[in-house]
Design a protein that fits this description.
By secondary structure, the protein is mostly helical. It has helices at about 1-20, 25-30, 40-60, 65-90, 90-110, 125-140, 145-150, 155-180, 185-210, 215-240.
């Protein structure tokens, strides 16, 4: 039963990512932690993200602007090991609480549609990227800081999909190496990944096939509303049962 639930969660996350260009970690991680231990979910999610982002980055490679994110990749890479160390050392109740706050906070912030300031100095990008690396290392949810930065830089929709996916891909490569060094790829992690490779590919195919028929703005709103519920449910469960 647990394997089936994991497969459903992976399909939803990959489908969301292929359509909107974000949401893989934000959707999958809080849901996975309802089913499996967060220390198992994090390295497993890294393998899923690596495969997904390689596919999407190839598709949107023509819109990629390397100069826009090279410094961001370096800054984020420096923070990733710190995030992984945090996950392994801190009590699970605290890590899950922070994950719930991050998911809920980002979803509410996006739904309220605050006006974003225009960022002209690239130095701010290093700060956002470092925060993204910390969240990626701990939770595979490095999206919010870098999405906010891209919005403030007024990236086009094409640049968003391309730059974000390549940025996250570089993050995931660094994450994969870090998890490998930490010996976090246990037989159970590899078993879950093997089972979900066909599900992942199905999510990509379905997502790319229907994306042209879907109102992306409306889809993102629906995802954000669902993330509010997921964040609240995660916080409720942590403080009620842990």
């Amino acid at each position: 039963m647990i394997d089936i639930l994991v497969c459903i969660i992976i399909f939803i996350g990959v489908f969301t990512q292929s359509i909107s260009g974000f949401g893989l970690g934000l959707v999958v991680m809080p849901l996975l932690t309802q089913v499996i231990d967060i220390r198992l979910a994090s390295p497993f999610m890294t393998l899923i993200a690596l495969t997904t982002l390689v596919s999407i980055s190839i598709l949107y490679r023509k819109s990629f602007q390397f100069k826009s994110i090279f410094g961001l990749i370096i800054s984020s890479s420096l923070a990733i090991p710190l995030g992984i160390e945090f996950l392994t050392k801190v009590e699970q109740k605290i890590t899950l609480t922070l994950l719930g706050i991050i998911v809920l906070g980002y979803a509410l912030y996006s739904l309220l549609e605050f006006s974003y300031p225009v960022i002209k100095s690239p130095k701010w990008g290093y700060v956002f990227a470092f925060l993204s690396g910390l969240l990626s290392g701990a939770y595979n949810t490095g999206g919010p800081p870098i999405v906010i930065y891209g919005t403030c830089c007024q990236w086009t929709p094409e640049q968003f999909k391309s730059n974000l996916n390549v940025f996250f891909l570089c993050n995931v490569i660094m994450l994969s190496v870090s998890h490998l060094i930490k010996k976090n790829y246990t037989p159970e992690v590899l078993r879950l990944f093997e089972i979900n490779v066909p599900i992942l590919l199905l999510g990509l195919i379905v997502g790319f096939s229907v994306s042209k028929f879907i109102n992306v703005w409306l889809f993102r709103k629906i995802v954000l509303v669902l993330l509010v519920g997921v964040g609240l449910q995660l916080l409720f469960k942590v403080w009620l049962f842990y």
